[in-house]
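Task 17 of the worksheet. Students: predict the tertiary structure of the chain below and write it out as structure tokens. Keep your answer in the requested format; marks are given for formatting as well as content.
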Amino acid sequence: MQSLIIHMSTATARAANTAQLMRDLPNAQIVEAVNGRDPAQVADVVTHPGTLHRPHYPFPLTPAEIGVFQSHRRCWQMIVDNGWDMALIVEDDLRVDPPRFARAMALVAAHATPDMYIRLPVKNREIPARTLATDADMALILPRVVALQCCCQAVGREAARRLLNASQEIDRPVDTWLQMHWATGQPVHSLLPNGNAEIAGQIGGSTIQTKTRTSGKLMREFRRAAYRARINRRPQP
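Model answer:
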């Protein structure tokens, strides 16, 4: 299986971890991240103010979120263009536990198809609607509600094609969009626990999160909770 590591070459604080991922992941290559703050790189991106899908998304897309979404689309396009049955897509703040990761990948190899999108999340917080396979404590599941973050996922060719077609215009972050199986047409599976960890705090912090004034935090959390409740009403079948 090929591995695509999303990394912005100017993010020097993440270079060492990216180099480690190149050693830890199978057939790894670096994919230059899209810089959402560079108008030239996102000139063709069509965005909407959270109104493209229901439920409406209550926050405006930030340049960083646009860049992350387009970086994942770049990887999906590579999978389709190369005709790979499936490839790993990881972000450069991922750390893997090689022995556990090898077990996880064996489970993926045994059960994945080109139609599937399988998250290998860094947090074990999803409740299964169905369990497809197990290996001791690991389980490949279809979660009722897809959790956030896109640190690590195995993406099949037909899933990548489907996601590309559905995301020609965007109105919310990529992980939030992927929760919306009714909008994407793509079921999302998860394999957990898998030993993965997210280490952004150790290598310069998040490249997406922005500071919010204390006076606005309460309203933001209220809007986030209301949005989350609407998503939870649409579990995967």
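Marker's comment: The longest strand covers residues 128-135. The helical segments are 15-24, 63-82, 98-111, 157-166, 174-178, 181-184, 214-232.
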